[in-house]
Amino acid sequence: MGDWRDRLRGDPLPWLLDETAPAVRHLALRHLLDRPADDPEVRAARDAATRSDPIAAILAAQDPAGWWEKPGHGYGPKYRGTTWSLIFLDQLGADPDEPRVRAACAYVLAHTQAPTGGFGCSAALSEKPPPPGLVLHCLTGNLLRALIGFGWLDDERVGRAIAWQATAITGEGEPHWNAATPGPGFRCGANDGLPCGWGAAKAVLALARIPPERRSPAVERALDTSVDFLLSRDPAVADYPMGYGNTKPNGSWFRLGFPSGYVADVLQVLEALVEAGAGGDPRLANAVDWLLAQQDAHGRWANRYPYTDKMWVDIDAPGAPSRWVTLRACRVLRGIELAAAR
User: pTM higher than 0.85, yes or no?
Assistant: First the structure.
């Protein structure tokens, strides 16, 4: 087996492991060097990340009750509301045992879940659950991934969200269609009722985070359906169905960024497919070549979608080399290399 760095123009690993960026170092130790969670260096990096920005700034803005900006369903304002803050904390590798992280998970499960099981994209200041008509694949996928990553897989409410996501993908069982999710196969009201590639990427990243031995037959079928959909187009072209008369893929597909909200990019499709076990599929070749072409002379990737001035704290300067985007790319390249060796 070759080294995943062989096709890079430089070795970014020392840069990713630099102690001045403890949150990146924490995840690089875990996902590029396979260090266990209880490794002393991993624990030290994770603890340092909790005390440092961007994680520290997000946690400092949280209300003691568990919400950000205002109580209620939490979708707004973008990208400082409760749902976004929790999603971004997960992507930053925040400590699941941090009391404020646990409070945020509990708050989202108590206030953002619709009666049908999925999560509603509502910014209402309300103690009542959001209506089922506001449940979307992208938000449900993002929050499910975060909640599973933070250790809430055994919570009954997370189980109901998983069931909603799987059923809404395959159409099996008793799906609860609505204006936002009008049918199976990632059909989305925000995409003119057509299947949405962004929503598919988020849903796959959520369901693939369930350990394989814990996946139900319904989840396995949903993942198979999702992988088939994402590979029904060349991910490097990303010409997934688009409505409202559009004939060209949204340009955001080709602007690699961090963190990730409801928008997806080519790299996130690769992330989803690798995590779903499809990293060895030859249909990824064009997207991998495209990804490699985006690196600079040092084997680093720039952040071209950084949510500048929209979050509690800026993470990267627009267009500058980004440890976070580079970490994303390296994880995918390593995952594909491992899949090829199996």
Answer: yes
